[in-house]
Amino acid sequence: MSQxxxxxxxxxxYVNDVPHIGHAYxxxxxxxLARFSRLSGDETRxxxxxxxxxxxxxxxxxxxxxxxxxxxxxxxxxxxxLTKTLNLSNDDFIRTTEDRHKDGATYLWNLLFEKxxxxxDEYTGWYSVNDETFYNEKDLIKQNDGTxxxxxxxxxxxxxxxxxxxxxxxxxxxxxxxxxxxEDFILPESKRNEVINFVNSGLKDLSVSRTSxxxxxxxxxxxxxxxxxxxxxxxxxxxxxxxxxxEQGELSSFWxxxxxIVGKDILRHHAVYWPAFLIAANLELPKRIFAHxxxxxxxxxxxxxxxxxxxxxxxxxxxxLDQFRYFLLxxxxxxxxxxxxxxxxxxxxxADLANDLGNLCQRSLTMIEKSYDSIIPEPINLPxxxxxxxxxxxxxxxILNKMISLQDITGYIKNVxxxxxxxxKFFNDKKPWDLKKNDENQYKNVLFVTANLIKQIGxxxxxxxxxxxERILQILNIKEENNFQSxxxxxxxxxxxxxxxxxxxxxx
Length: 508
Fold this sequence. Notes:
By secondary structure, this protein is an alpha/beta fold. The protein has helices spanning about 20-40, 55-65, 70-85, 100-115, 170-180, 190-200, 230-235, 235-240, 265-280, 310-320, 320-330, 340-370, 385-390, 395-405, 410-430, 430-440, 440-460, 465-475, 485-490; strands at about 5-15, 45-50, 90-95, 120-130, 135, 140, 150, 155-165, 185, 205, 210, 220, 220-225, 260-265, 290, 295, 300, 340.
């Protein structure tokens, strides 16, 4: 199998508050992509981490009467612990308070400044502390009382201060040309169109420093200014693979095949500002920026004021990690908005996991246990129909690879569940309970085929539900976990099953 280097990133999560379902969703999706990539035989890096600078952090720390660094240390550790709770396979966890990050951000600033694309002026306009974003008035929503709010509902304040500016307007046409030449650079297509419309409406130069607070990376040669948090934080991505320095190391080659997975609320920062910075600095752009949707809770917008924020740890503790991972990735097409409800979660667990997958494994493997002392039988004159069922794994992988190349995670899972449905239909149609009495050769064949289909299912669900995958492969006595193909090539006939236990208890 060809060795390709792939690099996947979550957003660098802001630590002014504790993680919620949105953070979990993005992280699990990126973990899926990284696990699939590794099992496809590709060299893979997976980055997550925390963004720890800016006015919002400073204000939150002041409210708690602690230092900004104390707040960051505390909340960053919560995010780091979440990677373990979610069973993420990340290779790196970066913090914007680390020296390696500060060095990379400073390096990019100097490249832009030396090129003449950063200049000193005065900023006057609307600023959102919540979003750490400058807004044009036309992009805000006017309230009945005459005030303005962002599309996310956050307040804005009118500020006037000295600021460094990046010549964003200079790169309007270059951005549009790049979007046109690289149609898959931004996905889904609806989000790509939103970005193009925004850029077409006209870009103004971007304020990239602040003087009203001091928590952040100082601008080189002007300590009165702090780097704009979005110029600062975005450099985490190349910093993790040592791409932003004069001595690019062995990891830097990962950068050319980078996929950023972000929420739609920060798409503009990633799809407009970030590529503009990189183009200006004559640096390579990431391969893909994919924006997913938002979650609601029982049809209602999630917010602290409504008291309906979803704590992923609580859900996991109540219903199980793999169950939670499966629900988030299966419930809505990846890229669309989705609604979370306990009822829907229970339905997925009971119908898809306990009934479809769990019962298939329990019924068929228990027959092997009882009939043949847990040893998977040798097939006898296996019909062509049966051979086809267990030999089309490579063809299925080709289809699944095409889906994942476009981050169609939900489509991938649907395809795997089609295989589960086919396996269930095969098992039910052949009625092995009758064959046991009337045709033992065919009985052995049905159990052999079903065990092989379960093996394929166990491999394919690994990116979605790694613990469940490992349990299935452990029951089948498969220890090898190198890649999709090598695991599938393992012969099962004559293998002695390990202890069988239910995969998913039903939820009442």
